[in-house]
């Protein structure tokens, strides 16, 4: 096991070396677009494996939810960087056409990233989990009779994340009414995430789960060495992802523009898809190890921190660049993007409140996402002619998600009540419970 684990670690690090060497030496600035995408993409792949191994190893010493939360934050750090850049430009050039465009791009990039995470991430991983080779070995896959009735069961401990995500989603519907992302949005959304982290930190370290490969080997280290190893994996992979994903995303943008794809569409969809790639790779890795529940936990945790921290911190970056407090402004179309993103989240949460997602539910989630994106693209390109504007098209899809979501919540109201009561008990135990959390070496 030791030799195989060291070879795997060495292989993952080797994937990152061409990028880190060229980046540190400045050679990367002279790469062609295609070479930049290739070298930075390989680095993202290697860093994603290192990140996943670090998170799995950390589960021996900290609550699993907290380890996954750290993994999620690091995996989506590039998305924060890209959005922060647009928010910064919006503040620097406030009042000008360039500043208005930057503010709209910040919102477009953020909403695109969030919808990709659910439309491709949640739906795609559910389908991959069920249909992958050897899925019979995954205890989370439930085989059922009926058309596309097989389902993936989720860890019931994820109920806490679902409730916090639900609260953030309900607040997100109000954001466009404030004339921009303001300090109240920051207080509520960032506050929700701070409370969530405080709760999971007070949780118990779960009983050891059987790990294999690199995590199993690293968990044999003494606790001090293990802690240093995990922190080193997090730091190194985080640095690789932070430095490589932006040129990877921009390279893909340039390649898309070279074949005639509109710049705004690329920034909303292709750049976020590239920046989400580390976390999608991590999740596929976990699912392939028959740890689909951990994979879904990582996706839900990522959605939670993007839907709270990412939105909430944009106003801070904008205000610093502006030199005074100001709400990050956006236009009517971006209001529609926020409502659509909130509605998709509302529907997706309704799917998960019974702690499972079936194949047909995942297909509905995926088809709705792809239909909206393709319709918008064809409308922008002039290929599709509709009697409504692109803003009105967003509202139509928002309505579809809301109708489906409300119907599910009504039919699953008992499950909703149970998950809220469970989470309320978890929060109460975390802040007011008398028992000491357990530890494990």
Briefly say what this structure is.
The protein is 75% helix and 2% strand. It has 441 residues and is mainly α.
Strand order of the largest sheet: 1-2-3
Structural class: mainly alpha
Do you know the CATH architecture of the domain at 63-207 and 279-432? Up-down Bundle
In percent, how much strand structure appears in the residues? under 5%
| Beta strand count | 3
Given as residue ranges, the uncertain stretches (5+ residues, pLDDT < 50) are 435-441
Task: Evaluate the radius of gyration.
Answer: 22 Å
Main beta sheet, described? 3 strands, antiparallel
Query: What is the element string, with H for helices and E for strands?
Result: HHHHHEEHHHHHHHHEHHH
CATH topology of the domain at 63-207 and 279-432: A middle domain of Talin 1
Q: Averaged pLDDT, please?
A: 84
Shape: globular
How widely separated are the two ends? 21 Å
Q: Look at the structure and give the CATH class of the domain at 63-207 and 279-432.
A: Mainly Alpha
Percent of residues in helical segments? over 70%
The CATH superfamily of the domain at 63-207 and 279-432 is NCX, central ion-binding region
Number of helices: 16
């Amino acid at each position: 096991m030791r030799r195989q684990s060291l070879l795997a670690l060495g292989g993952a690090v080797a994937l990152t070396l061409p990028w880190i060497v060229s980046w540190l030496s400045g050679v990367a600035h002279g790469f062609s677009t295609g070479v930049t995408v290739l070298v930075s993409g390989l680095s993202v792949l290697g860093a994603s494996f290192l990140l996943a191994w670090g998170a799995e190893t950390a589960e021996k010493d900290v609550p699993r939810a907290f380890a996954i939360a750290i993994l999620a934050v690091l995996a989506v750090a590039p998305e924060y960087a890209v959005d922060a850049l647009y928010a910064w430009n919006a503040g620097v050039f406030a009042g000008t056409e360039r500043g208005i465009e930057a503010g709209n791009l910040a919102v477009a990039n953020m909403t695109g990233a969030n919808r990709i995470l659910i439309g491709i991430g949640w739906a795609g991983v559910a389908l991959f989990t069920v249909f992958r080779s050897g899925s019979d070995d995954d205890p989370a896959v439930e085989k059922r009779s009926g058309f596309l009735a097989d389902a993936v069961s989720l860890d019931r401990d994820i109920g806490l994340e679902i409730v916090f995500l639900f609260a953030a989603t309900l607040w997100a519907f109000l954001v466009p009414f404030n004339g921009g992302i303001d300090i109240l949005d920051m207080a509520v959304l960032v506050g929700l995430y701070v409370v969530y982290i405080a709760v999971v930190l007070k949780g118990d370290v779960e009983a050891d789960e059987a790990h294999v490969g690199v995590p199993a080997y690293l968990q044999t280290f003494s606790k001090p060495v293990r802690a240093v190893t995990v922190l080193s994996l997090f730091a190194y992979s985080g640095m690789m992802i932070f430095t490589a994903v932006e040129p990877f995303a921009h390279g893909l943008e340039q390649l898309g523009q070279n074949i005639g794809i509109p710049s705004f569409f690329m920034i909303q969809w292709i750049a976020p898809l590239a920046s989400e790639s580390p976390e999608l790779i991590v999740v596929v890795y976990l699912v392939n190890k028959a740890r689909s529940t951990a994979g879904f936990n990582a996706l839900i945790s990522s959605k939670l921190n993007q839907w709270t921290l990412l939105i909430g911190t944009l106003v801070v970056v904008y205000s610093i660049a502006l030199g005074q407090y100001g709400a990050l402004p956006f236009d009517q179309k971006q209001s529609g993007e926020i409502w659509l993103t909130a509605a998709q989240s509302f529907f997706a949460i309704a799917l998960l409140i019974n702690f499972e997602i079936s194949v047909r539910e995942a297909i509905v989630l995926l088809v709705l996402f792809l239909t909206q994106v393709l319709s918008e693209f064809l409308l922008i390109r002039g290929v599709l002619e509709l009697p409504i504007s692109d803003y009105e098209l967003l509202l139509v899809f928002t309505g579809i998600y809301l109708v489906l979501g409300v119907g599910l919540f009504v039919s699953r109201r008992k499950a909703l009540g149970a998950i809220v009561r469970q989470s309320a008990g978890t929060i109460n135990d975390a802040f007011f419970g008398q028992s000491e959390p357990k530890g494990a070496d």
